[in-house]
Design a protein that fits this description.
With about 450 residues, the protein is of the alpha/beta class. The protein contains 20 helices and seven strands. The longest helix is centred in the first third of the chain and has 18 residues.
């Protein structure tokens, strides 16, 4: 395969100087870790890699996923099928002229040699609409197989005509087992460290934890740790025994201390609990500390966002109703953006929750109401509140005597709303005098008087 300007692939000597993550790039589909759904038997991506195509030729594909999930690797595998040419462009540096040059060359190669060209376009979301439009003729006529990679939602970052002419493949972060397999292979494989090193369990666990599901980050950190370990071996002391890579080596290499946090054990619940209780207690520094511990340990930012949303209602409530708006917005933003930028969004939501006036009045109120329902309290719905939208309702007296609140002064209708056994005996919602809820306290008192409660 050649690049855009006809240069040959790197030589063996060049490959040995390449970064570990490049040397360990899977060369066959069986070496790919993770992405089981995207690469299942019969999937469009697998058929594309294995050389399959439709009646009009092979389809193009858009790979959407976080960094380090194999987008570049999969593009290379598509190129190796059926002796295809491979051209790689980055949307950061390439322009319309570069795209058109590739398209013209791809058409000539197809006409002269019957060989397709795979164009791997990284970070396609950085292309403007006009630049993406330049891809359409080659993709539509299948003169080129476009494999475009993006970390942003294609629905918002890629033009509809290009989406409709491509297969959308969603990639996911690798799980801990997959990352551990990647590291173990890199230690033993001749393309990697070739068995010259021994990776201790604690060091492996740390590398897995800090990788965040990113295989490239894990391999880069491993390579740095191996360099630190090798530097500590005295000159002339190296023998046949492999050099041990310890936890201290990995910490020194990536300048990240091993976080005492187990995403599946007690620490998972303890640190999450501490985050919630620190926000509840209004200690913003403590809350940010526990947020940082969770993020550095590789906790799923979506899990953290959900906990913040719950706290915004359970602990802040009507003390500051905008805290829930911030938390919900953060949850959606985190899902769209991902790490590392998601840390900023989560921090804003945590700070808002921690500094906001607190009220659990709504939380207590619904719990008390549920307790009464479970205890069998609450009789029939008063007749005047029952539905009238079906045949026979009027004959049964449903809706008779109902007062339409909007026809009354101040929009408040004085009538019974609770079932008979709870009317006059129930006081679920008890507003506090904190924050915004202090304004509701007087209004609720006035409303109960108007309602005859």
């Amino acid at each position: 395969m050649t690049d855009l300007f006809g240069a040959a692939e790197p030589t063996t000597a060049d490959a040995t100087r390449a970064p570990l993550a490049v040397r360990m790039r899977p060369q066959t589909i069986d070496e790919v870790r993770g992405q089981r759904e995207a690469l299942r038997q019969g999937s469009p991506l697998r058929r594309l890699i294995e050389g399959g195509s439709g009646a009009a030729g092979p389809l193009s594909a858009i790979l959407w996923g976080p960094p380090g999930t194999g987008k570049t690797t999969l593009a290379h595998l598509v190129a190796t099928a059926a002796d295809r040419d491979f051209v790689e462009l980055s949307a950061v540096t390439a322009g319309v002229k570069d795209v058109r040059t590739v398209m013209d060359q791809a058409l000539r190669t197809l006409d002269l040699y019957g060989r397709h060209t795979v164009l791997f376009l990284d970070e396609i979301h950085r292309f403007t609409k006009a630049q993406q439009d330049a891809l359409l003729p080659g993709v539509e006529n299948r003169h080129v197989i476009l494999v475009a990679a993006t970390t942003e939602n294609p629905s918002f970052s890629i033009i509809a005509p290009l989406l409709s002419r491509s297969v959308l493949v969603t990639l996911t972060s690798l799980d801990d087992t997959d990352i551990a397999d990647v590291l173990d292979s890199a230690v033993t494989d001749q393309r990697g460290l070739g068995g010259a090193y021994l990776l201790e369990d604690a060091a492996r666990d740390h590398l897995v934890r800090i990788s965040g599901g990113d295989a490239r980050r894990a391999l880069t950190s491993l390579e740095a740790a191996a360099g630190v370990a090798a530097d500590e071996v005295p000159i002339g002391a190296a023998g046949d025994d492999p050099i041990r890579i310890t936890l201290a080596h990995t910490e020194q290499a990536v300048a990240t201390a091993a976080v005492r946090y187990d995403r599946t054990g007690d620490q998972h619940y303890d640190v999450a609990s501490a985050l919630i209780k620190s926000m509840r207690g209004s200690d913003v520094d403590a809350a940010l500390h526990y947020l940082a511990r969770m993020l550095e340990a590789g906790e799923d930012p979506r899990f953290i966002a959900r906990r913040i949303v719950i706290a915004a209602s359970e602990d802040v409530g009507m003390g500051d109703p905008t805290a829930l708006q911030t938390a919900v917005a953060a949850m959606h933003a985190v899902a769209q953006i991902g790490m590392p930028e998601a840390r900023i969004i989560l921090a804003q939501a945590v700070v808002h929750n921690a500094l906001a006036p607190k009220s659990n009045a709504a939380y207590v109120a619904i719990n008390e109401a549920i307790a009464d329902v479970r205890a069998g309290k609450g009789g029939a719905v008063p007749p005047h509140l029952r539905g009238t939208g079906y045949a026979g309702a009027a004959r049964l007296g449903h809706g008779k005597g109902y007062v339409y609140a909007h026809d009354e002064p101040d929009g408040i209708a004085r009538q019974v709303y609770l079932p008979d056994d709870l009317a006059g005996k129930t006081d679920y919602y008890r507003p506090t005098d904190r924050g915004f809820e202090s304004r509701l306290q007087e209004r609720w008192r006035w409303l109960k008087e108007r309602l005859g409660r």
